[in-house]
């Protein structure tokens, strides 16, 4: 009978130890929702719970301002190469102090993560080949991105006048395949297109004149009336 009564009352192999003396020493601690091992509301957690709970409020934040600055720079550089000035602007916009920004950027300079000279060379090559931009337009773009004048001049020196003139002519030939109108209208339109890409008037006029001279008789007659050399000389006088 004792065995059967024990089974009925739950005193089996998985039963909790019986209480002794009316106390709770033998009872497992029951927390919220009656789950053993969980602290009751208001009770301090044990050491392991405290250690694991430090990050429970949300994602961890950078330990200091320098770490935040590095993360901002790396996110910027993941999109495309950046100049030092571009990264400094991004850091200032995010509230990073100038002192910390200089420390981080100086370190990036040392290890070659940022290199304005390499950036400028790559920019000139890519934008000239891809968009047909001339040195004047490229110089303006480099200045807008914070590249200093000396570094920009060195990078632009790799784009010589011959290459620039050849690119201008290639742009005109490609545009002539679709442009229509009188020779005068076509001439103005193509010269304007080259001017917007930064080509000097002399280079632009000469490229369009040579292309029109090979198009047809009417265009060639119009081209004969254009004095590209005189325009180039006038341009040189203005630059002095």
TrEMBL record:
Its main location: cytoplasm. Keywords: Cytoplasm. It is found in: Cytoplasm. It holds the Pfam family RecX_HTH1. Residues 40-53 have a biased composition (Basic and acidic residues). Residues 1-69 are annotated as: Disordered. Residues 9-19 have a biased composition (Low complexity). Residues 115-156 form the RecX second three-helical domain. The keyword Cytoplasm applies. Gene3D superfamilies: Winged helix-like DNA-binding domain superfamily/Winged helix DNA-binding domain (1.10.10.10). Residues 164-207 form the RecX third three-helical domain. Modulates RecA activity. Belongs to the RecX family. This is Regulatory protein RecX. It comes from Plantactinospora sonchi. The gene is recX.
């Amino acid at each position: 009978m004792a065995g059967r009564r024990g089974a009925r009352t739950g005193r089996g192999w998985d039963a909790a130890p019986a209480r002794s003396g009316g106390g709770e020493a033998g009872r497992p601690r029951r927390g919220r929702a009656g789950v053993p091992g969980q602290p009751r509301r208001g009770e301090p957690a044990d050491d392991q719970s405290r250690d694991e709970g430090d990050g429970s409020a949300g994602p961890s934040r950078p330990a200091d301002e320098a770490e935040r600055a590095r993360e901002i720079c790396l996110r910027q550089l993941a999109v495309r190469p950046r100049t030092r000035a571009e990264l400094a602007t991004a850091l200032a916009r995010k509230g990073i102090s100038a002192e910390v920004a200089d420390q981080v950027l100086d370190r990036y300079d040392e290890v070659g993560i940022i290199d304005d000279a390499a950036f400028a060379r790559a920019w000139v090559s890519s934008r000239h080949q891809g968009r047909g931009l001339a040195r004047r337009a490229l110089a303006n773009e480099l200045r807008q991105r914070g590249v200093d004048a000396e570094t920009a001049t060195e990078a632009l020196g790799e784009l010589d006048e011959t290459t620039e003139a050849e690119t201008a002519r290639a742009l005109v030939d490609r545009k002539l395949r679709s442009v229509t109108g009188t020779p005068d209208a076509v001439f103005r339109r193509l010269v304007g297109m080259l001017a917007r890409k930064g080509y000097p008037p002399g280079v632009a006029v000469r490229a369009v004149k040579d292309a029109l001279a090979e198009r047809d008789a009417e265009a060639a007659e119009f081209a004969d009336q254009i004095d590209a050399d005189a325009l180039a000389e006038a341009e040189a006088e203005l630059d002095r």
